[in-house]
Specification:
Domain Helicase C-terminal: 229-411
InterPro entries: DEAD-box_helicase_OB_fold (IPR011709), DEAD/DEAH_box_helicase_dom (IPR011545), DNA/RNA_helicase_DEAH_CS (IPR002464), HA2_WH (IPR048333), Helicase-assoc_dom (IPR007502), Helicase_ATP-bd (IPR014001), Helicase_C-like (IPR001650), P-loop_NTPase (IPR027417)
Low-confidence stretches: 1-21, 668-678
Distance between the termini: 46 Å
Strand content: 15-25%
Domain Helicase ATP-binding: 48-211
Helix content: 25-40%
Bound molecules: adenosine-5'-diphosphate, magnesium ion
Keywords: ATP-binding, Helicase, Hydrolase, mRNA processing, mRNA splicing, Nucleotide-binding, Spliceosome
Strand order of the largest sheet: 4-3-5-2-6-7-1-8
Number of helices: 26
GO cellular component, one term: catalytic step 2 spliceosome
Length: 678
C-alpha cells in the first residue's frame, strides 16, 4: 500500500467532525430511524442468510434502496469484519467519499477510522478501518500488493451495471481468487434488472432482489429538438421554480461536466437575481467529480421550506448518489463519454447521447419520495429511434494500455483467454500491446521489462509513468514529477474571472516566456509557487487556483515517494529545458503531430486533422512539430497540453516506431534533413 496521503484534507470539518458538534444524541437517533426506513432494511436477515449460504450473491435494487450504505454495515454487524475488512467499490471517487462520510455518521465514528475511503492519491483509511469504500481502480491496484486480497473478508463490487473498465477487470480477478479463498464473500450489486448476466458469469450465483418503492414519474418530451440544451435546461428549471409551489420538491438537472455546470450555475444566479422577492430562493448545488470535498455535502442538506434546491449534476446522480427530495428531473439526454479508435489508437472524450437505460434511470430519480416529473429535452421520436438500448461497456470503447500493464504486472500473461464478462475488441488489445511494446514496457516475447515493472508502480497512464521513468536518463526526474503531478490534478489550474480576463491571460503568458510549451510552463508554475513557500497570495496574484496547486503538491509528494521505491534519484536538469522536452518525447512520441499549411496539425502515425487547444500557450505560435498529452473533442478535435519537439528526437527515442521518412520536414525542403527549426 503506497499511494497514501494523510487524512488532513478529507477528515476535516466537512463531515465526520461536525457531527458531534451539530447533531447530538437526537440527531443520531434520527439517523438510525432513517436507516430503518430504507427498503433494504426489511430484507436484512434474508440477505445475511443468503450471504452466509452462498459465496457469491448478486444484489439488485433500485437506486436509493440502501444497498451501498447499509449492506456493508449489516455485514459488519453480523461479524464479517472479525477476520478481515469489507471493501466496497464505486466507479466514482465522489461516491466513495460521500458514501463513506454518510456511513461513518450512521455508525457514529470518525471518517478514516472504522469507516474510510480510498481513491487515487487520497487514502482516508487506517489500520482500524473495517468498512472501506474505494474506487474500483484502487481495488485493482491493491491486487498488486496483495494478490489474494487476504486482508478482506468481503468484497462488494457496487454499481456493477456501470460496467466501467476497472469493474469489468475486477470481475475476472475476484472470480478467480474466490476459488482459492472459500472464506471470501463476494457481493455484486447493481441498480438495474439485467442481473442475469452477472449471475451467469459468476457460475449461476443467486440473485437477491430488493423491491424498491417507486412512485409514478410523468415523462414530458419537447416537441422539437432543442438547439441549445444548456439554455433549454436553465429555462425549464426556472419555469418549474416559478410556477410550482415552493416546498413541493427539488430539481435535478443532468449536465455533462464541470465547465457546463459552472456555466449553468452562473446563468441561473444571474437570472434568479431578477426574479424579485416574492419568489422563494433557488439554492444552486453543483456536484461533479472534482468538486471540493467541503462543498460536496451541500447537496444532501435539507431544503428550507421557503426555498427550492436545484442540483446541477453530472452522471454521478444517475445511480451513484441518491439525493432525497427530488421531484423534478431535467434530462438533456447527453453524457460525456470516452471513445476510442483501435485503428488509430486515439482516445477522446466527447459529449454523446445517452442510452434508453440511462434515460430511464434518470427519470427514476424523480419518483423516489413521491410522484415526480421528468422533462426530457429531446423528442419522443428521438427517444424511441435514436437512443441505443444500453451504454456500451467501457472496455469496448477505451484504450487498454493501463489495464494490460496492470494485468501483466499481476502475472496474467494470456490476455486473450482472460475471463472477461464481455471481451474487449481484439484490435484494442493488440493496440495496447503494440503501444506497451513501443514504450519498452514489454519485450518481444510480451514479458514485462524492467522499465515496465517500474512503470507499474505509478498509478498513472502508461505514457505518464513512462515519462517519469525515462526522466532518469535525462536527469530531470525532479521536473518530471512536478509536470506529471500538474497533469494529474484533474481540475483547472488557471482562474479567469470574467472582469479580469486580460490580467489573467497576461499572468498566464508570463510562464511561457521563451516560447516554451505547456509542460514546461506547468513546471514553472509549480516551481514558482514552491519558491514563494507555497504562498496563497502568490496564487491570487497570478490567477492560479490555490486548491489545484495544493492537490498538485500532494500528488507530487506521492510521486516522489514512488520514485524512491523504484530507486530513481530525484535530479534536477538545472535549467536544461531540452532535456525535459526529450524526456517527454520519449514517452509521448506516439502522440506526435506536425503543422499543416492552414494552421491545423496532422497526427504523424495515423494521419488525422487536429488542432492546438486555444488554452495552450502555443496556440498562437504554432510550432512545426509537437507532442500532445491528450485529445479532446469539443467543436473540433483538440490537442491539450502540447510541447514543441525536434523531429530527429523521434528517431532518437523511438527508432522502432518511426522511420526517417516519417520525420522528413517536407515544409522546409531547403533545410538539411534531420535538422528541425524554430
Ligand atoms: P443505493 O446504494 O441503494 O442506491 P444508498 O445506500 O446510496 O442507496 O442510499 C440510501 C440513503 O442514504 C438515501 O436516502 C440517500 O439519500 C442517503 N445518503 C447516501 N449518502 C448520503 C450522504 N452523503 N449524505 C446524506 N444522505 C446520504
Ligand atoms: Mg449505491
Amino acid at each position: 500500500k503506497h499511494e497514501v496521503m494523510n487524512c488532513t484534507s478529507c477528515c476535516g470539518e466537512a463531515y465526520g467532525d461536525s457531527l458531534e458538534k451539530s447533531m447530538g444524541k437526537s440527531g443520531f437517533e434520527k439517523l438510525q430511524a432513517d436507516r430503518r426506513s430504507l427498503p433494504v432494511y426489511s430484507y436484512r436477515e434474508e440477505l445475511l442468510k443468503a450471504v452466509e449460504e452462498h459465496q457469491v450473491v448478486i444484489v439488485v435494487g433500485e437506486t436509493g434502496s440502501g444497498k451501498t450504505t447499509q449492506i456493508p454495515q449489516y455485514l459488519h454487524e453480523a461479524g464479517y469484519t472479525r477476520h478481515g475488512k469489507i471493501g466496497c467499490t464505486q466507479p466514482r471517487r465522489v461516491a466513495a467519499m460521500s458514501v463513506s462520510a454518510r456511513v461513518s455518521q450512521e455508525m457514529g465514528v470518525k471518517l478514516g477510522h472504522e469507516v474510510g475511503y480510498s481513491i487515487r492519491f487520497e487514502d482516508c483509511s487506517s489500520d482500524k478501518t473495517v468498512i472501506k469504500y474505494m474506487t474500483d481502480g484502487m481495488l485493482l491496484r491493491e491486487f498488486l500488493g496483495e494478490p489474494d486480497l487476504s486482508s478482506y473478508s468481503v468484497v462488494m463490487v457496487d454499481e456493477a451495471h456501470e460496467r466501467t473498465l476497472s469493474t469489468d477487470i475486477l470481475f475476472g480477478l475476484v472470480k478467480d481468487i474466490a476459488r482459492s479463498r472459500p472464506d471470501l464473500k463476494l457481493l455484486i450489486s447493481s441498480a438495474t434488472l439485467d442481473a442475469k448476466k452477472f449471475s451467469d458469469y459468476f457460475d449461476c450465483a443467486p440473485i437477491f432482489n430488493i423491491p424498491g418503492r417507486r412512485f409514478p414519474v410523468e415523462i414530458n418530451y419537447t416537441r422539437a429538438p432543442e438547439a441549445d440544451y444548456l439554455d433549454a435546461a436553465i429555462v425549464t428549471a426556472l419555469q418549474i421554480h416559478v410556477t410550482r409551489p415552493l416546498g413541493d420538491g427539488d430539481i435535478l438537472v443532468f449536465l455533462t461536466g464541470q465547465e457546463e455546470i459552472e456555466m449553468a450555475e452562473e446563468i441561473l444566479k444571474r437570472r434568479t437575481r431578477g426574479l424579485g422577492t416574492k419568489i422563494g430562493e433557488l439554492i444552486i448545488c453543483p456536484i461533479y467529480a472534482n468538486l471540493p470535498t467541503e462543498l460536496q455535502a451541500k447537496i444532501f442538506e435539507p431544503t428550507p421550506k421557503s426555498a427550492r434546491k436545484v442540483v446541477l449534476a453530472t452522471n454521478i446522480a444517475e445511480t451513484s448518489l441518491t439525493i432525497d427530495g427530488i421531484k423534478y428531473v431535467i434530462d438533456p439526454g447527453f453524457v460525456k463519454m470516452k471513445s476510442y479508435s483501435p485503428r488509430t489508437g486515439m482516445e477522446s472524450l466527447l459529449v454523446t447521447p445517452i442510452s434508453k437505460a440511462s434515460a430511464n434511470q434518470r427519470a427514476g430519480r424523480a419518483g423516489r419520495t413521491g410522484p415526480g416529473e421528468c422533462f426530457r429535452l429531446y423528442t419522443s421520436y428521438n427517444y424511441q429511434n435514436d437512443l441505443e438500448d444500453n451504454t456500451v461497456p467501457e472496455i469496448q470503447r477505451t484504450n487498454l494500455g493501463n489495464v494490460v500493464l496492470n494485468l501483466k504486472s499481476l502475472g496474467i500473461d494470456d490476455l486473450v483467454n482472460f475471463d472477461f464478462i464481455d471481451p474487449p475488441p481484439e484490435a484494442s488489445l493488440l493496440k495496447a500491446l503494440e503501444l506497451l511494446f513501443a514504450l519498452s514496457v514489454l519485450n518481444k516475447k510480451g514479458e514485462l521489462t524492467k522499465v515496465g515493472r517500474k512503470m507499474a508502480e505509478f498509478p498513472l497512464d502508461p505514457m505518464l509513468s513512462k515519462m517519469i521513468v525515462a526522466s532518469e536518463k535525462y536527469r530531470c526526474s525532479d521536473e518530471m514529477i512536478s509536470i506529471a503531478a500538474m497533469l494529474s490534478i484533474g481540475s483547472s489550474i488557471f482562474y479567469r474571472p470574467k472582469d479580469k480576463q486580460v490580467h489573467a491571460d497576461n499572468a498566464r503568458m508570463n510562464f511561457y516566456t521563451g516560447h516554451v510549451g505547456d509542460h514546461i510552463a506547468l513546471f514553472r508554475i509549480y516551481n514558482s509557487w514552491k519558491e514563494t513557500n507555497f504562498s496563497t497570495q502568490w496564487c491570487y496574484e497570478n490567477y492560479i487556483q490555490v486548491r489545484s496547486m495544493k492537490r498538485a503538491r500532494d500528488i507530487r509528494d506521492q510521486l516522489e515517494g514512488l520514485l524512491e521505491r523504484v530507486e530513481i534519484e530525484v535530479m534536477s536538469s538545472s535549467g536544461d529545458l531540452e532535456a525535459i522536452s526529450k524526456a517527454i518525447t520519449s514517452a509521448y512520441f506516439p502522440n506526435c503531430a506536425r503543422l499543416q499549411k492552414n494552421g491545423s496539425y496532422t497526427t504523424l502515425r495515423h494521419p488525422q486533422t487536429v488542432h492546438i487547444h486555444p488554452s495552450s500557450g502555443l496556440a498562437q505560435l504554432l510550432p512545426r512539430w509537437i507532442v500532445y498529452h491528450e485529445l479532446v473533442q469539443t467543436t473540433k478535435e483538440y490537442m491539450r497540453q502540447v510541447s514543441e519537439i525536434k523531429p530527429e528526437w523521434l528517431i532518437d527515442v523511438a527508432p522502432h516506431f518511426y522511420q526517417l521518412k516519417d520525420v522528413e520536414d517536407t515544409g522546409s525542403k531547403k533545410m538539411p534533413r534531420g535538422q528541425g527549426r524554430r
